[in-house]
Amino acid sequence: MKVVKFGGSSVASPEQFQKVANIVLADRKRKFIIVSAPGKRHDVDRKMTDLLIQLADSVAEGRDDSAAFASVMERYQEIVTGLSLEKLFVSEIQRNLQETIARYRHDRKRLMDSLKASGEDNNARLMAAYITTLGQEAYYVSPKEAGMVVTNEPGNARILPEAFERIGTSLKNREGILVIPGFFGYSKEGHIVTFPRGGSDITGSIIAAGVEAEEYENFTDVDSIYSVNPKLVRNPAEIKELTYREMRELAYAGFSVFHDEALQPVFHKKIPVCVKNTNHPEAPGTSIVSAREPNGYPVVGIASDKGFCSINITKYLMNRELGFGRRLLEILEDEHISYEHTPSGIDNISVIVRAHQLENGKEERILQRICTELLVDEVHVERNLGMVMVVGEGMAKTVGIAAKAANALAEAGINIKMINQGSSEVSMMFGVDDYQVNEALTALYHAFF
Ligand SMILES: Nc1ncnc2c1ncn2[C@@H]1O[C@H](COP(=O)(O)OP(=O)(O)O)[C@@H](O)[C@H]1O
Ligand SMILES: N[C@@H](CC(=O)OP(=O)(O)O)C(=O)O
């Protein structure tokens, strides 16, 4: 049996619902269906999740929420009317939203999570109802009933280990097509808790692992995963196959097409993933697998991301000071800062973090602590950094990858601010100024493809 996830763009309108139903009904193995909230119908549209966040903010801040509420309801109205579903659905959704608002008006985090989750929840109910109207047995299954138990961290849920067994027990032997909302689970205390943004991919992967699916199909709005983001480089090469490790690196570094946290559950159970296009389901898509045959190209993809900064620290004889690195990272841990990379020299070390983590006075406090607790010679924060990541299993066995990349960047007039390569040698990271990230990506793409 397959688990099939449809992203926001695949369930954005009545027409998209029809395509989804055709895809589901075309293969009897497609039994477990995960849906996102309605996404963008066109480039300047807004995602349901963003509308719901706006609604939650208006309520929490005591502002007039009627416009936000109306924008949310319009999207459901369009789907219900366009698919000729019972009008009752619209009034039920409206009543549920009003009840959620009334219940959590004074608890901003719960209000936010409950409203965000309602986007996927209502869409799953509508999808199950629509498939039923086509004469197929289909049921909505709530994440609670499915056994999705998660940590109690609003907006940042992580699955609990016992969930996998619970999911298997509650879903494996059920009849019909089961439609499950993505993006959220329930804490042990019974609260709705959402995953990070884009988290319906995570739900799909967890359900696939729980029911031990033969495949996890992830339907989106592109024919395949491309070797660079198609919004940044025109007509990039399609990737036919890539490994979990390669996908993890690329997703982390900016390939938003598949959530980087969604790989672990399927990787664990060695369930293959196939990314396909709802608007062009005949295209073969991209397979994500445990291992692949070398295809002559050491690099499979190049990803980029912006919004980093580097805490640069210098101290004479740092290399001789036992525990320096540990104490530095402990300061960051105390301040709830997670780090991305730590390139270092003999007397210096840099810690790369996402810049938003240093807001609200944290930067000053951390610099102060590093000075006074570690007695360093110098510490400063370098802002506006971007990262470009070159990824491929074949890189470890190929001579000259770094030279080729450095040469391409030099020819494009781009100054490399740092280089980092992990011991797995599946990726190489180049730190450049934010404003040169897209140029760097293009230069590297043309060097390797
Ligand atoms: N390397 C890549 N290959 C394909 N798509 C990519 C890549 N990097 C970024 N994307 C973007 O990911 C989008 C699909 O992901 P997402 O917007 O989350 O879709 P969905 O609505 O299905 O959840 C594509 O439209 C594309 O713009
Ligand atoms: N709707 C949620 C979760 C999600 O996965 O959406 P999408 O499939 O549209 O990326 C979000 O926008 O974050």
TrEMBL record:
InterPro entries, per database record: AceGlu_kinase-like_sf, ACT-like_dom_sf, ACT_Aspartokinase, ACT_dom, AKIII_YclM_N, Asp/Glu/Uridylate_kinase, Asp_kin_monofn, Asp_kinase
CDD domains: AAK_AKiii-YclM-BS, ACT_AKiii-YclM-BS_1
Leader peptide range in chain numbering: none
Domain of life: Bacteria
Biological processes, Gene Ontology terms: diaminopimelate biosynthetic process; homoserine biosynthetic process; lysine biosynthetic process via diaminopimelate; threonine biosynthetic process
Pathway it works in: Amino-acid biosynthesis; L-threonine biosynthesis; L-threonine from L-aspartate: step 1/5; Amino-acid biosynthesis; L-lysine biosynthesis via DAP pathway; (S)-tetrahydrodipicolinate from L-aspartate: step 1/4; Amino-acid biosynthesis; L-methionine biosynthesis via de novo pathway; L-homoserine from L-aspartate: step 1/3
The entry's keywords: Amino-acid biosynthesis, ATP-binding, Diaminopimelate biosynthesis, Kinase, Lysine biosynthesis, Nucleotide-binding, Transferase
Assigned protein family: Belongs to the aspartokinase family.
The protein's name: Aspartokinase
